[in-house]
Amino acid sequence: MRGSLRTRTTVAATAVVAVALVIAGLAVVLLLRANLASQAQLQAEVTAQQLASQLAGGTPITKLDLDDERPVRITNATGKVLATSEKLTAIDGRPVQPPSAARAANPPATTQPGNSSTTSQPTSSATRPPTPSSTVPNDDDEGDDERGRGGDEPDDDETSTPQPQPGRVAEGDAEYSTGTATVDGRTAEYRFAALKVTLPAGGGDVTVQAGAELATARDAVSSVSRTMLIGLPLLLAVVALVTWMVTRRALAPVEAIRTELAGITAARDLRRRVPVPDSRDEVARLARTTNDTLTALETSVAQQRGFVADASHELRSPIASLRTQLEVAAAHPELLELDELLADTVRLQHLAADLLLLARLDAGDHPDPERIQVTDLVRDAVEGRTARLDLTAEPVVLGNKTRLSRILGNLLDNAERHTRQEVRVVVSSTGGQAVIQVQDDGPGVPEADRDRIFERFVRLDDARSRDEGGAGLGLAIARDLAQAHGGTLTVTTSPQGGASFNLHLPLAPSS
Questions:
Q1: How far is Cα 78 from Cα 80, in angstroms, rounded to an integer?
Q2: The whole model's pTM is what?
Q3: In the CATH hierarchy, which fold is given to the domain comprising 368-506?
Q4: Whose CA is closest to 490, among 473, 480, 504?
Q5: Which residues touch 378 (CB under 8 Å, ≥6 apart)?
Q6: How do strand 186-198 and strand 175-183 relate by DSSP bridges?
Q7: CATH architecture type of domain 270-365
Q8: What average pLDDT does the structure give for the chain?
Q9: Rounded to whole angstroms, how far apart are CA atoms 442 and 448?
Q10: Tens-digit pLDDT profile for residues 319-343
Q11: Whole-number Å distance between alpha carbons of 314 and 470
Q12: For the chain, where do the domains classified as CATH 1.10.287.130 start and end?
């Protein structure tokens, strides 16, 4: 995605919030729909349970209080409709034709044979009470009474009379279904619950089906959905606006840093610094780090300029001397001093080599290391010199032999220029490091100058000649080479009272 960071952040935050709100809205709608549908099902079940309990308790179908606002249908085992709510006219598109209340309460009379003028109304086994046998006159009553006086056992006629069976609601959950029903001329969708009931006194099984309308639940879900559809864009607009403003405020210090850096680049003024906000967050740390980088860059540029100036000054002297000698030789060949001319040429060659080596070190040029025996390296370095060896260990280090020899050569040259009688080289090993000490008995190095002497083109004795003191690059090269090998080079006071240059190099791992 292209564009500013503020735009991308705003779009991303708004998109995340939109996805979260859509998911949450769908979850709310689905939960609301399921909850309201469950409530409608519960209402239908409660209505069916109430009617089923009344029927099981012996209440006649004609005496049931059927809710005119809810569809209720009672059918027998064969599916014949026994009763319905008054305003119910159809279920699932099929008309409902319940029998009239009078027909349900009083079925048609039957004519008994031999008595055409008398009609009798049969009594359902579910509502007809059983008649005890003792209520029917019998010639054997007296005898039976006499046989029953001697004990509490009932007579044979009483034990053979069947007792009425109580009604009950079928165990288990109700059967649920969803369909349409037409109540008072209006067709709507309902949730139905059906319960089976066994009527008392052997009246048979009937099914009570009651429904609860789902339109209310759907209207509520629709209202919530519309509210969310209207509120979601408004909420997203608020989120986008707030994110835009917060991001703008958060990125204001970053923009100030960028503006200041652009000004520094345009003016090439490394003395300027970027503003640091008062907050203690990542932006403040970025500003402080940027200022530290500018400080290091300013120092590096200053050192580079000083190095170039010093190098130009050092190169100008031998070149000028060579030119003078050559001009004199051209005019007066008999006055040519070949030894002096050769010395200036060699000095110029060494200076150019030193400058080239420093440039390579500054560029990060590090040859592949090899395992080097320090004692052998020291013996080679002191060969031909008046130096005393003190080898107390034989450490092995990783490095470049030529460059390590250059370190020892520069240290020995410096010690020989300042010593009075003797130069001593001590080799030891301690703390996982090889230690090489080059000691002399000269005037030593003042403590205030022990760091400055490792700077480039620095001479502590300004009065001594260039031929004796060199260009002031030997110790700087030695320190840079030591650091390139992961070591350090410091100066302290030697036991003889002079200077002791201490080279520490990490030991090579065991092979």
A1: 6
A2: 0.49
A3: Heat Shock Protein 90 (3.30.565)
A4: 504
A5: 389, 391, 408, 425, 427, 436
A6: antiparallel
A7: Orthogonal Bundle (1.10)
A8: 80
A9: 17
A10: 887 888 888 878 878 777 777 778 7
A11: 10
A12: 270-365
